[in-house]
Amino acid sequence: MSIDQQGGLGSARVLLVGCGKMGSAMLNGWMVAGVDPANAMVVEPGATAGVPRGVTWVFSADKLPADFVPDVTVLAVKPQMMDAAAPGFRPFVAKGGLVLSVAAGKRIAAYEGYFGSDTPVVRAMPNTPAAVGRGASVLVANANVRPEQRELAERLMAAVGTTDWIDDEDLMHVVTAMSGGGPAYVFLLIEVMAAAAAKLGLPEDLAMRLARTTVSGSGELARLSPEPAAQLRQNVTSPNGTTQEALAVLMGEDGIQQLFDKAIAAAAKRSVELG
Questions:
Q1: What is the pLDDT of residues 234-271, one digit of tens each?
Q2: CA atoms within 13 Å, Cβ hemisphere of 187
Q3: What is the pLDDT of residue 274?
Q4: Which is the most buried residue in 1, 89, 138, 224, by most CB within 10 A?
Q5: CB 73 within 8 A of CB 89
Q6: Domain definitions of the chain by residue range
Q7: Annotation: CATH topology of 182-274
């Protein structure tokens, strides 16, 4: 396996297990980042339109070429399916490559159980904006991961967005609850903003268009601005103006902070249960 000096993925041999929305988003990002399609194998039992030209796609582990030696096996199946799916790839993981999981809730210990305690494992928690190259991924590694494998994992995830590392695996529950599920919360915000405006008489299509554009534009401003989010909020809020009236509701007792405290805690609890 080679990784070029410019940050590409060179001749990395990648085995992707699961090519749903997240798997296909990552796969397409890897192609852009330089993975040779001839070095990529995909196992996906269902129909998929997400496999780029030149990538080998099979329906099950037993259809893979026996002589394929992956540098990394990426597990992108649902956590509820992992116990049934992962052990079938033991012969390929046993060849010495890295295991990279993007399944919510499944702890590193589970993969060490499937493949052996000496297996190098990285857990990553991406989110769905990876589909447009704007994902946010947090990674954690076990002690078996070598520096070059850590770099490989980082570059694979960086192909679809930003990357950050943590040392405490328990914090992945919070990451899953906040950024993993975060896009759903933002999409809900678009829905409720549009619905509120429509109830006051704005045509529904215009309300939705304005809500989508406002949220996406604000997100881009937050991404590009050096100012903290609190300052960006204050920049929009004139004293005694209309925005201040709305914020008095949103930031009041039982307002949005209290709701999000409960929501993130509930999601983190479910992440623990899935593990």
A1: 999 999 999 999 999 999 999 999 999 999 999 999 98
A2: 7
A3: 78
A4: 138
A5: yes
A6: 14-167, 182-274
A7: ProC C-terminal domain-like fold (1.10.3730)
DSSP H stretches of helix in 1-130: 21-33, 82-85, 90-93, 108-115
User: Which of these, 185, 176, 182, lies nearest to 274 by C-alpha position?
Assistant: 176
- What backbone phi and psi angles, to 5 degrees, belong to 165? -115, 145
Query: How far is the C-alpha of 149 from the C-alpha of 159, rounded, in Å?
Result: 15
Whole-structure pTM value: 0.88
Superfamily of domain 14-167: NAD(P)-binding Rossmann-like Domain (3.40.50.720)
Q: Which residues contact 66 (CB under 8 A, 6 or more apart)?
A: 91
Q: Are 73 and 92 in contact (CB under 8 A)?
A: yes
Tell me what the mean pLDDT of segment 156-178 comes to.
96
Specify whether the backbone of 145 is left (phi greater than 0), alpha (psi in -120 to 50) or beta. beta
Instruction: State whether residue 107 is helix, strand or coil.
Output: coil
Tokens of 9: 């993925």
Q: Interior CA angle at 121 toward 271 and 151, to 5°? A: 115
